[in-house]
Specification:
alpha/beta; Molybdopterin biosynthesis moea protein, domain 2; Molybdenum Cofactor Biosythetic Enzyme, Chain A; 4 domains
Length: about 425
Amino acid sequence: MITVEEHLSRIVGTVRRLPPIGMELLDAQGCVLAQDVTSEVALPGFRNSAMDGYAVHASDLEGAGEQSPVRLPVACDIAAGNTQALNLAPGQSMRIMTGAPMPDGADAVVPVERTDGGLALVVVSAAVSVGQHVRQAGEDVAVGDLVMRDGTRLEPRQIALLSAVGTGRVMVTPKPRVVVISTGDELIEPGTRPGFGQVVDSNSPMLTAAVRALDAIPSRVGCVRDDARTFLSTIESQLVHADVVITTGGVSMGAYDTVKEVLSRVGTMRFDKVAMQPGMPQGFGVLGEDEVPVFTLPGNPVSAMVSFEVFVAPALRLMAGRPQYETSLVTAVATHDWATPPGKVQYARVVLSRNGSGHPSGHPSGQPSGHTVAIAGLQGSHALGALAGANALAVIPADVTSVRAGDQVLCHPLGPITEAS
Ligand code: AMP
Ligand code: MG
């Protein structure tokens, strides 16, 4: 038996960040930048108005107020999109819109709300200071600034900045392409009704969805029989277009455990018992010329899901150029007792709840509100009903033999955490 850490460290020591490729910016959403980006432009690109109002010389409005309004002639309008260079003569104003270029000579903008909105002549009832309501060229990004580093994930905000500095294509780490294969003679395709002794394949839909939820690219292969030749030819044909292969089933101690039987002899595959519950039988290694990482997960659906979370997800993140972990564990207080297996890490399916709204505005102290955790129904590794009702895995260390009400428990969230009812 090996520990979870031992198995995981073999995995993260094997997988590599994928080689970079060029992509259109919008296609690269969710990918990680594989280059530094330096801006060749300034942002803002030109001095412009932050308000709808009047471009002025601040000195012309000295002493202006409600009781002492100042009148200025309006020389012209400047709308956003104006590309003409203009010059504001002293003692004059120009009606200007948000984002429109400031005329030379003008050093401030009076918001329209502080005027009568006049078209030929404007009555201004407030003074302004130099630079007020003016966005300076380059105040956000200067020419030559390093605006984004290698390793940055491209989310909407990053895509906005890269667009603004004129980036059309980017070098990124591609999303890993993940082939998902279910094995088992009992399996039938999703969408069909099982007869006696048959089981609908729920692992490959689950893992396909889990891969997609992680921003990788799944490719689901239908169920494969427990037949050595069929399985081997399926996996060989899939290796060519996979960055990762995940199989489920056929890795325990049964007589028809084909996956283990076939793959024990190829590549660097190794099959281990890992001290965890569920998910004890695990296989991992690289196969084929391209040394594609292959995860052979146990067939019980809950075991497969837990294995994905604990072993596959960190590997996929690293291959995508992301950190191994992107969310942290949540500490919660157990609301009742439950049993845990001796000598194994327990990944209990639990409901993790937040006390209070969890929104900072709902807490005068601004403090996080605390969490509670309860077992989410039947804990068997076949129990899909309880799995679907859970929103977290409680991670109970191998040396803990029982959880008691009131104990602090570390939880690995699987989905949104709702308010305790
Ligand atoms: P195995 O790991 O092949 O011994 O399978 C263990 C248990 O998981 C058996 O009860 C299988 O029927 C079930 N199982 C295996 N693969 C799947 C699958 N793709 N979908 C649902 N259940 C499965
Ligand atoms: Mg099987």
